[in-house]
Amino acid sequence: MAVTAPSITQNGTQEPFDLQVGRDQISWHKKIFQFGLNLTVGTTFETIWTGSSVYAYLAAATVLKISSGSANDTAAGTGARTITISGLDADYNQISETVSLNGQTAVNTVNSYLRVFDMNVATAGSGGTAAGIIYAGTGAVTSGVPAVVYGQIDLTYNTSAMALFTVPAGYTAYITSYTFTSASAAASIVTGGMFIRPLGGVFNLEASAKLAGGNSFDRHFDIPLMVAEKSDIEMQAAATTTAQVTGEMHIIYIKNDAAT
């Protein structure tokens, strides 16, 4: 059998730039595909995340409480056993850790988080998935639910669904595309927005979408939308009648270094 030549050289000169970034072949370039879901978008703008509300950001880096709504999400349970949480520390540097669950009893993170943008079930028992909603939050924990929630993994997903991201320190982000979808009735009109808040500033609408129920809206930027370090990026939506809305965004972020 003939031996086929590899599709790419060591330096990646034969493949498109996006694919090279996806294969981690370009130094100082990172990528993220961030997506979210809000099942009850109302008539005022809400963040597209499973918390189904306007997302509240941490004001300072804080140790978070990780807990579940089910007692089966524990080290020896049939549900989720460990989860991985990712975000930013007080200096906006990326951090991540794996936490062993203890059912409805909160377990503290080792790291202090200023931002949370990803949570995943890392290991599970015989059920293969979380038995309850898993939360990352602060304040009193009641039946596994913290008083203030900054991230959550809903049932069957095994991952968080949060259409938000904060650009790490020392990087500039470039949004290459975004998508809104709506599962609402055809009569419902959904207005989506890509909002960006620079450090010390306020959220401003930078790009928009409008779609009827059951449709989607895709935007691919000919020139990617540039976002400075430490800026918050968030997808929001509002609807004329209650709607289920998803949001997705592709982001490449590049180290602020003259050598790149």
Characterization of the model:
- The protein has 260 residues and is mostly beta strands.
- It has two domains: 26-55 and 163-255, Jelly Rolls; 62-153, no CATH class.
- Helices cover 2% and strands 53% of the residues.
- It contains one helix and 16 strands.
- The strands form four sheets. Strands 2, 10, 12, 13 and 15 form a five-stranded antiparallel sheet that branches.
- A hairpin with a 5-residue loop joins strand 4 (80-88) and strand 5 (94-100).
- The longest helix is centred in the first third of the chain and has 6 residues, at 17-22.
- The N and C termini lie far apart (42 Å).
Biggest beta-sheet profile: 5 strands, antiparallel
Unreliable segments of 5+ consecutive residues: 1-7
Secondary structure category: mainly beta
CATH class of the largest domain: Mainly Beta
Q: The CATH topology of the largest domain is what?
A: Jelly Rolls
Sheet-strand content, in percent, reads over 45%
Question: Portion of residues in helices?
Answer: under 10%
Question: Order of SSEs, N→C?
Answer: HEEEEEEEEEEEEEEEE
Mean pLDDT: 92
The number of helical elements comes to 1
Q: Gap between N and C termini, in Å?
A: 42 Å
Tell me, briefly, the overall form: globular
Please state the second-level CATH architecture of the largest domain.
Answer: Sandwich
Annotation, overall tally of beta strands: 16
Number of domains: 2
Radius of gyration using CA atoms only? 20 Å
